Structures are given as structure tokens and as C-alpha cells.
């Protein structure tokens, strides 16, 4: 991969990280219900989606570093 592709991949991962945070909040808010079971499930599912964010941020950092080395 060349430097431009790695930079674009880095930016995409950064945006996906922020989207994961927003998605986590949206999933939690939109899937919660009135019973305790559905509220607990919504909370766990929101946390699961939110855990993707650090992975995307780390990938973004790594791709950015690789792009700097490729130039």
C-alpha cells in the first residue's frame, strides 16, 4: 500500500471510532425498553458497540505511522 492509501485508511478508522461512540449511545437509547431485561440487554449491547472505538483509534494511529514510514 502506498502512503496515500494508508492515510485514507487512517482517517476512515478515526471516523469509525467516533461513529462507534455515537452508535453506542444510539444503540443504548433506541433499544432500551420498559422491562429490566430489555434495559440490561440494551446497556450491554451499547457497551459492546462502544468497545470497538479504542480498536479503531489504535488502527488509525498504526496506519498513520505506517504512512509516515512509507514516505
Structure in words:
By secondary structure, this protein is mostly helical. It has one domain. Helix content is 89%, strand content 0%. It contains three helices and no strands. It has helices at residues 3-31, 36-50, 52-70. Helix 1 (3-31) packs antiparallel against helix 2 and helix 1 packs antiparallel against helix 3 (52-70). The radius of gyration is 16 Å and the shape is rod-shaped.
Summary of the model, kept short:
This protein has 71 residues and is mostly helical. The protein contains three helices and no strands. Helix 1 runs antiparallel to helix 2 (36-50) and helix 1 (3-31) packs antiparallel against helix 3 (52-70).
Task: Produce the secondary structure layout.
Blueprint: H1 3-31, H2 36-50, H3 52-70
Number of strands: 0
Number of domains: 1
Largest sheet: none
Number of helices: 3
**Mean pLDDT score, rounded?**
93
Share in β-strands: under 5%
Q: Helicity, in percent?
A: over 70%
Structural class: mainly alpha
- Low-confidence blocks of residues: none
Q: How far apart lie the N and C ends?
A: 11 Å
Principal-axes geometry comes out as: rod-shaped
* H/E topology pattern: HHH
Mind telling me the C-alpha Rg? 16 Å
